[in-house]
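Repro:
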Amino acid sequence: MRRSLEGKGAFRRFKNALYQQHPDLISAWHTLRDARARARAVQWLADEGLIDEDAAQRFQRDHPEPALP
């Protein structure tokens, strides 16, 4: 897994290694990836002034990052 994270194409290699070597972690990976994408989207909205900072903080508080196995 460590080698898969180095250089160009790291995300693709990581995904391939995950699916081939650790299929039991795929569901947890998707859950974490989706939660982090939502958090980044909300932060972007706040940074662009499309929502206020209080709303962004409420979202972060109400949607904590999932616990991993």
